[in-house]
Request: fold
Amino acid sequence: MNIVRLVLKELFGMFVDDGSLALLALILIALIAAAVKLLGLPPLIGGFLLLAGCLAILLESTRRAARGKRR
Amino acid sequence: MHDLTPILSTVTASFLASFVEVVEAFTIVLAVGVTRSWRPALTGAALALAVLAALVVAFGPLLALVPITVLQFVVGVLLVLFGMRWLRKAILRGAGIIALRDEELAFSKETATLQQQASDRRADYLAGLAAFKAVLLEGVEVVFIVIAVGAAHGQTLYASLGALAAFILVMLIGLAVHRPLARVPENALKFIVGLMLTSFGVFWTGEGLGAAWPGEDFALLAIFAIVALASFAMVGWLRRSAPAGETAR
Reply:
């Protein structure tokens, strides 16, 4: 049972290291998916927004981590 | 060339990501083998490989039941999360904010733990368990990477070959040098893998949403280039903004 728990913990950890990075990425994807499916946003624009959003989230996450380490 | 782009990128991503994971597992198995004996080390590793194979056999065929656009979207989202996690860590390491992974240090820590357990009557079991856990946990990541980079474009075979090549190469180098593979440029590899997985993630999530990327599969290379440029810029910016002498090495 411990092994199962360990594997599940590893699986979770594979995707979530900095919780807010994962959360922001999921919110970004959900918003873009909703805009494409419900508001008629062209999917290609959604793709470009996803790329830009991911880079912005990454920048914010690394900046916050750097600030935290230097404090 | 047009068909080669997704195949080459799939094989490369799978090979490099698996290489990093296999090196980490190898360090622990080697520590068990050298400190205790090779019997628990190899038994633990073989059992873990059997569990991983069973997982692939059990869950692999289920993927064929999922519609391709749903699969691309789900795999794309997971790859965005997985890739950005690797990339974030690689950027922070590249900028000197967090320390680089040290295989010699990991080997020493595992050796010290095993030596403390040497007098325990369950020492062989504990040593085998350490090897089992290391191979299983790193192997789970390899299985995910193979499925993720392979499944969305029907290239699981190529992805598997990339992972197998990484496994064989690490074993050959490991058998030859018989010590932790500390000289492997792990952060550089993780950086490249993070860039590739994030790019795959954005590309497939977009395709899952119905985006027809300009240039089709070539768009993957353009996304990779954009993510790479932005990531290197982040490393440079973080380095420049660090107070003098304040880096973790």
